[in-house]
Amino acid sequence: ITTASEGYEPPPFSSIYASLANPTLMLFLGGFVLAEAASKYHLDRNLASVLLRPFGTSPKLVIAGMMSITAVMSMFMSNTATTAAMMAVVLPVAAGLTDPGTKAALVLAVPVAANVGGIGTPIGSPPNAIALGRLSEEGIDVDFLEWMVLAVPLALVVLVAAWFFLTRRVGEDAPDVRIEVGGAFETSTAAVILYVTFAGTVVIWLTESVHGIPSSITGFLPVVILLSTQVFSTDDLRRLNWHVLWLVGGGIALGSGVGTTGLDEWFVGLFDWSSFSTLLLTAILALLAITLSTVISNSATANLLVPIGVSLALSGAADLDPVLAGVVIALACSLAMALPVSTPPNAVAYASGYIETRDLATVGLAVGAVGIILLLFVAAPIWDATGLL
Q1: pLDDT per residue over 48-95, tens digit each?
Q2: Nearest residue to 59 (alpha-carbon basis) of 168, 181, 176, 161
Q3: Which residue has the higher pLDDT, 33 or 374?
């Protein structure tokens, strides 16, 4: 690593503080504002009520419906906010169930689906934003729809596998499950503004390749619209998960520091990376990510590994695409869900008292293993063969 005596000059403080206003952070801020506003006007619970009706009362179908709705919501809201909203729907029902297997499966379905659904969009989970921020620092832009094309198919297959694991807990003679959320969509002017803003933001995100408006700029639109119309107040603004935003900002600053201090060059020089195959390198990064994320937060793991993985790919010392490195690490971080501390959705579900650590470990390890196998041996080769990377 270079030192001051060798001519190294630390970057100015302004460049470090600029990480707190990084475009990727603005994208995430927009997602947080939409999620908080949706909760304020009960849009999340009302949507869940409407979308669950076609699934009837069969326990396995209700679990499928719960997982589908949670995953989709988690793509456009933070997975923590989605879990909190859906647990409010699930817990009253779980309290009245007599079959312990069905009860555990129904409660577990929410955090598992939120974790898996969160990989589907840039705003679904902090590791996604950290990876995009690091790539953006290197002039590599991955837009909203491109990320979804990479991640959503994987999320769908993993969700099906997770549903299979969860429904094995449901007994053949398990009683019907009836979920009645109640309530109606608000029709006030403020609520209508929220509905239009939410739908419009998602549409603009998905059509970035058509109009060319960066997703980070689009993400700031709901902040401006909802605050200027008083749909979202300053008190609501204070309730946002600012600590998560600063955590992502810190990860972006860390990634920048890895390059300016020469830490990336030092790390690259440790091994002869050219002797490693692309599969072996991605496997090492993925396994490190999911292992560390199981015992510490996935955001902290992404902050640690994304700068190293992307820098290794950019160095040219290894046959590794930087986008592949960033995406694999981010997705692997979100596939770690075996312990209550692994992700915020797990912690929220565990706090309900309806599931134990062994329940999370059993399902989380199985889902994580399936996800990593699919990521390394199915998704990555398909991305390469179809030119997505």
Answers
A1: 777 777 887 788 998 999 999 999 999 988 787 788 888 878 888 888
A2: 176
A3: 374
> What span, in angstroms and rounded, lies between the C-alpha atoms of 132 and 127?
9
pLDDT in tens, 209-240: 888 888 888 988 999 999 999 999 989 988 88
Tokens of 379: 């998704």
Query: How far, in Å, are 125, 209, 338 from residue 364 at the CA level?
Result: 17, 36, 4
Extract the tokens encoding 78: 């933070």
Alpha-carbon distance values, 318 to 39, 132, 283, 307, 373 (Å): 46, 21, 14, 15, 22
Crossing angle for the helix pair 215-228 and 189-206, to the nearest 10 degrees = 170
**Distance (Å, whole) CA 284 – CA 295:** 17
**Which range is least confidently modeled, 48-57, 128-137, 160-169, 184-193?**
48-57
CB atoms within 10 A of CB 277: 11
User: Which is nearest to 19 in space by CA: 262, 242, 256?
Assistant: 256
- 83 neighbors 114 (Cβ within 8 angstroms): yes
| 268-271: long-range pairs with CB below 8 Å, 24+ | 268/311, 268/312, 268/315, 268/317
pLDDT tens for 236-287 read: 988 887 877 777 777 777 766 766 777 666 766 676 777 788 899 999 999 9
